[in-house]
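Thread: phosphoenolpyruvate complex, take 2
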Amino acid sequence: MRRKFIVGNWKMHKGPADADALADTLKRALAGRDAKVDVGVAPPFVSLSAVVSRLKHTGILVAAQNLHSEAQGAFTGEISGEMLRQVGVAYCLVGHSERRQFFGDTDAFVEKKVAACFRSGLLPILCVGETLAEREAGKEREVVTRQLTAAIGKLQADQVPSVTIAYEPVWAIGTGKTASPLQAQEMHATIRGWLESSFPAFVARSTRLQYGGSVKGSNAAELLKMPDIDGALVGGAALNAEEFLAIVEAANAA
Ligand code: PEP
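Output below.
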């Protein structure tokens, strides 16, 4: 019942012209496909307009990589959910580990950003995951549960399935080191268990959980066939159309 969902996070790559070219390649490759899988891309802010117009009526979804929690105000350099909505964006990443690590996104700020998504009609893709030190200390479940509780623990039950939860172990992001399918499945089962114990049963059944961390064409199939892995958030491999399309293909076949 949960459709697979593959999202490419382009990070700080691809200005408007390059982003438009990559979006066009994806559009052509995915045209007329049997839409068994939801596909999305998250370009940088300045490329969103170009990508939204290139992908209009294609079914390929467009996400922003971040937003500010306030609707407007004296926050130099920031972008609000309302602004993203005006540009035609549907989804927004929230709490990506690079934001948590380099830009001071705390659990409390992430909660406010999730609320801002709902207020402005964006669907959040909430990123959670432990660092290597936290995993080595055996704290991965504790950390992820804390992040989930802070970010979405107080939502109304019927809001939660609109949130996609991306489990991204920080030690696997951009390192070429992927969690094994079993490691990833274990954490996804923990997240689904947390949903089960925190909300009515329909929430855990319908909320999509993505895995992220060095996913590529060659390892996507084994990850995506795990019972609690409903998709992937893809960084580096999403910059290459062929690699990204191979991941979409693996999701189609899973
Ligand atoms: C990411 O940025 O969300 C990510 C998973 O990156 P990579 O695939 O490069 O590890």
